[in-house]
Structure formats: structure tokens, C-alpha cells
């Protein structure tokens, strides 16, 4: 590894070797075990990294392609990273491809400290909507739900039971940056059920055997927790019994059910119907 100086003297390291220990640590973030150990995760793309910094996420390392040298926006993010106590690495295309496991990788990758919201800190107010996902398995589904929660202005996501990792590369990619805007909490089923006892809003479960049409409910004027079932098994009885209502989205055709993320999207747009107006976007 050689030192390369520009912008922030001595603080940008130029790396071309895959054997570099800093690069090895970043590559290891592809595996949950190492994400947990380092309490970190990776996000790709300049815009995402800027958004994350603007939202107060703590950056550990900024990696950028040599081709980005002299790019004003990248230099600015590099200076912010250094100011935040992070490391900046200027790397070869080969190194960036290895880190992202992608051909034609983005020019910028950020490594951030993981952040979860403690369940006890979730105290929804009237009009707030939270999505609780029972044992969600698929990273694409989880990422898509987080992105949709962001898009409808819901407050966050509660992961219930053993779920896929919200900080996996595929999940983060599927969120398209919303991982930085949407609080995520994690709870065992027991902890969620205990929390639910202290929650006086509406717990709306969705179930293929639900007796109530999701469009017949008035969701306004109270906090709502939308509870969605696991992709293969749906909601188990202990969670279904904890719901105030079990709702169903009517279907036609041969499909048994909707994809989890699609069903969550349909529900969220109905629950937030009154709050969403064209021209009123932030
Ligand atoms: N085989 C599973 C079952 O029996 O429940 C299918 C689960 S479905 C792929 C995943 C989740 O999406 C469900 O647990 C439910 O929360 C929601 N879902 C999908 N289609 C739905 C529908 N038509 N009405 C209500 N919820 C639905």
C-alpha cells in the first residue's frame, strides 16, 4: 500500500492489492458473520453515501475508484469522511469489482456502522404507521418493503423472529438508499407480543384466511401496525391472534397469494391513502 496525497494530506490511502487487510475486512462484509463482528455494512453509490452522511450515519470507510480522482463531489465526501474520523481509500477497478462482487461497479462505496432502533423506543402516535414483518426470508422483499415504507411516509419496520439481515448487500441494494431513512427494529416474537400489549392503536394483520376486506377499514386517527406473514408459512397463530383485525386483499386468477412485498405495498398505500397527495411530496 502506498500513500497518496490530495485534498486531505496523508489521509487518503491508495490501494491496488486485494491482499490489503483493509480491503479484506470490507470484502468480508459480504458475510453476515463479519457484518455482525464489525457491526458494519456496505452501501454503494455516491448519492447513497451523501444521503447517509446527511442523515447522520457514521461512516467508517469511503472507497472510491481511481477514476473518481478530481471529481468535486467525491472529494467533498472524502473530506466529510476524514472529518468524521473515517478512512478514505482510493482503489483500482479490480479492487472495487472484488469488494462489490460486480462488473462495472459504482465508483463509490461507503462502509457504515449498523444502526437498529430499540423496540422499546417505538411509541407510535396517531397517524403513525409501522410495518412488522414476521420472519421475512428474502433480502429483495425486505429491501423493497423498506423502500416502500419510506415512499409512503410510514415510520419504520419491526423485524419479528429470525429474519434475513437488513444490512446484507442485496437488502441494502433493494432499499435504493431507504435503509438510511427508515428506522428498523428487531425483536423476538415474544418481545414483539409483549410490546404489542402496551400498544393501543390498531394491529392490522394480513392473512389469506382474513375475513375482512382491507379496503373496508378506517385506518385514520390512530397509530397502525401492519403485520405481514412469512413468505412460505404466513402468520403463525400466536401472531394472528394478537391482531385486532385479519385483513385480506381480494384476488382473482390462479395465484394463491401475492408476493410479500407487493402485498405490503398494496396495504401501505391503502392505509396511507388520505396522507398522500400529488404535488405534496417533500
Ligand atoms: N403460503 C403462505 C400463506 O399461506 O400464508 C403465503 C404467504 S404470502 C406469500 C406472504 C404474506 O403476504 C402473507 O402472510 C400475508 O401477510 C401477505 N399476503 C399475500 N397475499 C395476500 C392477500 N391476498 N391478502 C392478505 N395478505 C396477503
Describe this structure in words.
The chain is of the alpha/beta class. The chain folds into two domains: 2-113, Ribosomal protein L30/S12 (60s Ribosomal Protein L30, Chain: A), CATH 3.30.1330.30; 119-275, 3-Layer(aba) Sandwich (Alpha/beta knot), CATH 3.40.1280.10. It has ten helices and 13 strands. The strands form two sheets. A seven-stranded parallel β-sheet has the order 9-8-7-12-10-13-11. Strand 1 (2-3) and strand 2 (12-15) form a beta hairpin. The N and C termini lie far apart (44 Å). Residues 1-10 have low confidence and may be disordered. It binds S-adenosylmethionine. S-adenosylmethionine binds next to helix 10.
Write the layout of secondary structure elements.
Layout (H helix, E strand, L loop, with lengths): L1 E2 L8 E4 L5 H8 L3 H7 L1 E5 L1 H9 L4 E7 L6 H12 L3 E5 L1 H8 L7 E6 L15 E6 L4 H14 L3 E5 L8 H7 L8 E4 L1 H9 L4 E5 L5 E2 L10 E5 L8 H4 L4 E4 L11 H12 L11
Parallel strand pairs: 2-5, 4-5, 7-8, 7-12, 8-9, 10-12, 10-13, 11-13
Antiparallel strand pairs: 1-2, 3-6, 4-6
Helix pairs in contact: 3-4, 6-7, 6-10
Bound molecules: S-adenosylmethionine (SAM).
S-adenosylmethionine binds next to helix 10.
What percent of the residues sit in helical stretches (DSSP H or I)? 25-40%
Give the CATH level 1 class of the largest domain.
Answer: Alpha Beta
Spatial sequence of strands, sheet with the most strands: 9-8-7-12-10-13-11
> What share of the residues does DSSP label as strand, in percent?
15-25%
Amino acid at each position: 500500500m502506498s500513500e497518496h496525497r490530495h485534498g486531505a494530506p496523508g489521509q487518503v490511502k491508495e490501494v491496488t492489492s486485494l491482499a490489503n487487510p483493509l480491503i479484506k475486512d470490507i470484502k468480508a462484509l459480504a458475510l453476515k458473520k463479519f457484518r455482525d463482528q464489525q457491526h458494519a455494512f456496505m452501501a454503494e453509490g455516491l448519492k447513497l453515501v451523501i444521503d447517509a452522511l446527511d442523515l447522520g450515519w457514521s461512516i467508517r470507510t469511503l472507497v472510491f475508484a481511481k477514476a473518481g480522482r478530481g471529481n468535486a463531489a467525491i472529494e467533498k465526501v472524502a473530506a466529510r469522511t476524514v472529518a468524521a474520523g473515517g478512512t478514505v481509500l482510493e482503489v483500482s477497478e479490480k479492487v472495487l469489482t472484488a469488494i462489490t462482487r460486480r462488473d462495472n461497479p459504482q465508483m463509490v462505496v461507503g462502509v457504515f456502522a449498523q444502526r437498529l432502533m430499540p423496540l422499546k423506543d417505538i411509541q407510535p402516535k396517531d397517524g403513525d404507521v409501522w410495518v412488522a414483518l414476521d420472519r421475512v426470508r428474502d433480502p429483495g422483499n425486505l429491501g423493497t418493503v423498506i423502500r416502500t415504507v419510506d415512499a409512503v411516509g410510514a415510520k419504520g419496520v419491526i423485524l419479528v423472529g429470525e429474519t434475513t439481515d437488513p444490512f446484507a448487500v442485496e437488502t441494502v441494494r433493494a432499499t435504493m438508499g431507504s435503509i438510511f431513512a427508515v428506522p428498523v427494529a428487531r425483536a423476538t416474537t415474544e418481545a414483539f407480543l409483549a410490546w404489542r400489549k402496551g400498544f393501543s392503536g390498531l394491529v392490522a394483520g394480513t392473512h389469506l384466511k382474513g375475513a375482512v376486506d382491507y379496503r373496508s377499514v378506517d385506518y385514520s386517527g390512530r397509530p397502525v401496525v401492519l403485520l405481514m406473514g412469512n413468505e412460505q408459512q404466513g402468520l403463525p397463530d400466536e401472531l394472528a391472534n394478537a391482531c385486532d383485525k385479519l385483513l385480506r386483499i381480494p384476488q382473482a386468477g390462479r395465484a394463491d397469494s401475492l408476493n410479500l412485498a407487493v402485498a405490503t405495498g398494496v396495504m401501505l398505500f391503502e392505509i396511507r391513502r388520505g396522507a398522500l397527495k400529488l404535488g405534496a411530496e417533500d
